[in-house]
């Protein structure tokens, strides 16, 4: 009796999970299916789920209408530069916060803590003015430079550096290692996985970033993928026959991230639940 | 000599990373505060100090209160469901033996995708005549609203997209918290014959309350800063029904170049966020069990 009760409970559990999972994934599936339909199929009432023949031409069509490869390259390139600089700078300051003694250390840490809680938008107007004074508006350099300070990465690395056993650091010091060597030979190798996770989350959030880059880049050859995609959507979205191309452009934008997620999903899942600064 | 070396060391490890942090975070916060007392229009080199006039203008304008109301509605209606769905997903996953990693990945996958791209897909799903959602509603003979073009439903559409994107993210934190609850607690409950509801009320919900606090604060800050989905799907319309405070700020600063009022509004947003976070921390002593 108890057993059948348990079994029916677990059937319910699976049923719910399958329904919820389908609901969450369906917009992605719908996007992919729509990108392979003809205009007639996409507008069909009642709905047709699958395209009659797969319209791969939609992709070449979209790529002819706007240089999406270039946009994606711009996004990937700036995101990688930003992530590398974020990790380097954050590991330096995280090292100082955990291993060095200096005046104003707690002030510095508290300022970073407060910054983490405040809306980034409050910095946009002055940062915009600063970039324009530096002559970096409408440039990829401007996007990189203005994003290299990551409060989130500093937190994550500080947390990880605190977990490194003191004995290891002291052992390295007694062998004559200076601070730079301790950071590069002990801290960073010991915290490889956290650094990888910080880089991964940093990359995804920079690739997906829209508001700030959309303010900075104005000429088409510097568009990031999010900016270019939305510009494409507002330019052609009012014409009914362009919807298959819009969907194809969406697929091009999303698929690299989905592939990254399929390859590294354990890292994402573990990394994000560990990144919650408990309490 | 040693002291000099010490300074050099600090200058290296703190000084270098501090440059971008100061330039793009700390100093802008203060510059923004200062700009909020001017009437600068971004283009002309001259401006006047108007003291608190910008704040006065904002706090007496109907646009501000409409946006404040929209922000409050959007925040409450996204934060609470995101957290409930997150907890439900995590609770369902907890006792699943097979395929839990697969389900977890599927439920989480929306978080990875760019909001801009998915907002375009959702715009398509929300199309009144041919969109997927209204066709499904039609099968069940439910009302088919015009979603993004109707000022009564546009905000709901934005809310649905936001919950869809974030629920899986909340689930990950709850999954972690649930895995740390000792099974013995439920065993005791079983012996006493407690119901599912009693288990949730007296064991699960209190024990995950620190995670709930964390998620409420982070998702609230996120909700106040929501922009991408609004920009793609409605641009604040129709009739200002999806214009949040942040969107109003964007329009003031980068469409009208009214830098004085925009920065004053950003100061108000910062204060609002700070007060809310403080209140949550403060009242959390009553409902968070460590």
From TrEMBL, chain A:
It is a multi-pass membrane protein. GO terms for biological process: transmembrane transport. The chain crosses the membrane at residues 12-33, 68-95, 107-130, 136-157, 194-212, 243-264. Pfam families: BPD_transp_1. Residues 72-264 form the ABC transmembrane type-1 domain. One of its GO terms (cellular component) is plasma membrane. InterPro entries: MetI-like (IPR000515), MetI-like_sf (IPR035906). The keyword Transport applies. Keywords: Cell membrane, Membrane, Transmembrane, Transmembrane helix, Transport. Coiled coil: none annotated. It is found in: Cell membrane. Belongs to the binding-protein-dependent transport system permease family. This is Carbohydrate ABC transporter permease. It comes from Psychrobacillus soli.
């Amino acid at each position: 009796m108890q057993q059948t009760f348990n079994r029916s409970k677990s059937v319910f559990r699976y049923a719910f999970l399958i329904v919820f999972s389908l609901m969450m994934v369906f917009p992605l599936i719908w996007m992919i299916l729509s990108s392979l339909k003809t205009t007639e199929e996409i507008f069909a009432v009642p709905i047709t789920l699958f395209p009659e023949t797969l319209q791969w031409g939609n992709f070449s069509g979209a790529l002819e209408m706007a240089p999406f490869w270039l946009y994606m390259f711009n996004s990937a390139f700036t995101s990688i530069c930003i992530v590398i600089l974020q990790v380097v700078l954050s590991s330096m300051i995280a090292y100082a916060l955990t291993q060095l003694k200096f005046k104003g250390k707690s002030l510095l840490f508290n300022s970073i803590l407060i910054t983490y809680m405040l809306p980034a938008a409050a910095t946009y107007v002055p940062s915009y003015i600063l970039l324009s004074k530096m002559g970096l508006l409408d440039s990829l350099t401007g996007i990189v430079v203005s994003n290299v300070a990551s409060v989130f990465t500093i937190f994550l690395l500080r947390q990880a550096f605190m977990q490194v056993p003191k004995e290891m650091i002291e052992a390295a010091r007694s062998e004559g290692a200076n601070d730079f060597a301790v950071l590069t030979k002990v801290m960073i190798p010991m915290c490889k996985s956290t650094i990888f996770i910080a880089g991964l989350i940093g990359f995804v959030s920079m690739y997906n970033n829209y508001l700030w880059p959309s303010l900075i880049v104005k000429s088409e050859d510097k568009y990031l993928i999010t900016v270019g995609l939305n510009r494409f959507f507002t330019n052609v979205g009012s014409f009914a026959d362009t919807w298959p191309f819009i969907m194809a452009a969406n697929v091009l934008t999303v698929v690299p991230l989905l592939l990254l997620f399929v390859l590294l999903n354990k890292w994402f899942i573990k990394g994000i639940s560990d990144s919650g600064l408990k309490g | 000599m040693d002291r000099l070396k010490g300074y050099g060391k600090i200058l290296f490890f703190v000084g270098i990373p501090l440059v971008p942090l100061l330039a793009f975070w700390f100093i802008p916060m203060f510059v923004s505060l200062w700009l909020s007392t001017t009437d600068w229009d971004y283009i002309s080199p001259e401006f006047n100090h108007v003291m608190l006039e910008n704040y006065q203008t904002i706090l007496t304008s109907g646009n501000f209160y409409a946006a404040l109301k929209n922000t409050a509605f959007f925040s409450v209606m996204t934060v609470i469901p995101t957290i409930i769905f997150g907890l439900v997903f995590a609770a369902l996953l907890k006792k699943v033996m097979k395929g839990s990693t697969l389900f977890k990945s599927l439920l989480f996958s929306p978080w990875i995708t760019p909001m801009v791209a998915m907002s375009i897909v959702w715009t398509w799903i929300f199309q009144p005549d041919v969109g997927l959602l209204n066709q499904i509603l039609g099968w069940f003979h439910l009302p088919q609203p015009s979603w993004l073009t109707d000022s009564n439903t546009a905000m709901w559409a934005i809310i649905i997209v936001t919950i869809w994107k974030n629920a899986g993210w909340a689930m990950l934190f709850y999954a972690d918290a649930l895995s740390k609850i000792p099974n013995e607690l439920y065993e005791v409950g079983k012996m006493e014959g407690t119901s599912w509801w009693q288990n949730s009320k007296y064991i699960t919900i209190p024990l995950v309350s620190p995670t709930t606090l964390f998620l409420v604060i982070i998702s609230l800050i996120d909700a106040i800063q929501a922009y991408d989905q609004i920009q793609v799907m409605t641009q604040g319309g129709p009739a200002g029904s999806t214009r949040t405070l942040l969107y109003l700020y964007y329009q003031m600063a980068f469409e009208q170049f009214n830098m004085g009022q925009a920065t004053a509004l950003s100061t108000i947003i910062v204060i609002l966020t700070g007060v809310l976070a403080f209140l949550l921390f403060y009242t959390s002593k009553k409902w968070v069990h460590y």
